[in-house]
Each structure stands twice: as C-alpha cells, then as structure tokens.
Write a structure and sequence with these properties.
The protein has 118 residues and is mainly beta. Helices cover 0% and strands 44% of the residues. The strands form 2 sheets. Strands 1-2-3-10-5-8 form a 6-stranded antiparallel β-sheet, with no helix packed on it. Strand 1 and strand 2 form a beta hairpin.
Length: 118
C-alpha cells in the first residue's frame, strides 16, 4: 500500500507478479483479494500444448496476446491469434485456447469480475 507523509495507507497498491498465486500456466490476480478491485486477471505463460479447455463465464473477458500465437475458440469459431491481437469474449460464450508448437505464449486475460466466480 502507498503511504503519504505518515497518513493512513490508501487502497492503491503495487503488487509483484511473483507474489501472486501461480496456478497451471498463470499468475492469478483476483481483484477481491487485492483491495476490492473490480477485475481479475491471469498473466499467462503457456508452454506448447497447454492452454485452457472450452469453458464459459457469467461475465466478459478480454484477452491481450502479448507474445507468440495461440489457437482460440470463441463460440463456434476457431481462430489463430498473434501478438498484438485483443480477443473480446462476451459473457456466457464458450471459449478456450491452446498454444501450438514453438515457444511460450504470453497473454493477459482480463476478467470483468472481482472474484472469478462462474
């Protein structure tokens, strides 16, 4: 938390990625556990052959592909996405991805939910 000249700490914070839980292929930032932030996110580092199976949420999700490429399923569409692409997945849309061969995929998955409750 930030402090200003001896005042009470505010709700602003700096969180180190390495201090977050690492589950599967990602560091997980859960907004409800970080000062009641309105979003949650996964900082993904998926090895070839890894990804997320088809699933859905009751909230929107935005995926920012940062490095490499991924094969993404959104509803009944399969699409290859690459670094620089932003994937928008509306609530209740089945989606998932897999990292084809090559090196590690890096993406940021932003969930418009503070608890990641489906």
């Amino acid at each position: 938390m930030f402090e200003k000249n001896g005042e009470e700490p505010s709700t602003n914070a700096v969180v180190r990625k390495e201090d977050l839980p690492f589950i599967g292929s990602s560091y997980n930032f859960v907004g409800a556990e970080q000062g009641d932030v309105a979003i949650s996110m996964f900082m993904v580092g998926a090895q070839p052959g890894r990804g997320a199976p088809l699933h859905l949420h009751e909230y929107d999700e935005v995926v920012i592909v940062q490095e490499r490429r991924s094969r993404f399923v959104i509803g009944d569409v399969i699409r290859e996405v690459t670094a620089g692409d932003i994937v928008v997945v509306k609530a209740r849309t089945p989606h998932g991805f897999i990292k084809p061969g090559g090196s590690v995929l890096k993406e940021l998955d932003i969930h418009v939910d503070s608890t990641l409750a489906d």
